[in-house]
Sequence to fold (139 residues):
Amino acid sequence: MSTLDKVVAGCLAAALLAPPAFAHHSGAMYDRQKTVTVSGTVKQFLYVQPHSWIDVVSVGADGQQTEWSFEAGTPGQMKMVSLAPSTLKPGDKVTIKGYPLRDGRHGGAFLQITMPDGKVIVTGRKPPPEQTSAPAPAS
Fold:
């Protein structure tokens, strides 16, 4: 075995034995035992690395506006579920479902969105079987 072969074999062994880096942060901030459903108007769709964001403004019966921010997947993951940068535009009326933030702030982890034409786009994540929903005011 040549020196080059030994170096290549050593590099391959090191790569195979290294612990995998699955994620850069935990999803512990989301309550995966509940879902929240928000109907409102898209403020912006940030199609960026490392995570895309969907910001939606809902309007309560009292006229108060509430902005919700939903963390979504990478642009590649969004593309796989048919969400491209031009799919969501400011002003679009949508209904979005996600796992809520544990601390009560208005945000969550994106699960699905109902588009203005009624089409439902779902991520690969599955809501909990004993799903509870805390609907937000519709606009």
Remarks:
- The helical segments are 3-17, 75-80.
- Residues 52 and 113 are 14 Å apart (CA to CA).
- Residues 28-122 form a domain with the OB fold (Dihydrolipoamide Acetyltransferase, E2P) fold (CATH 2.40.50.140).
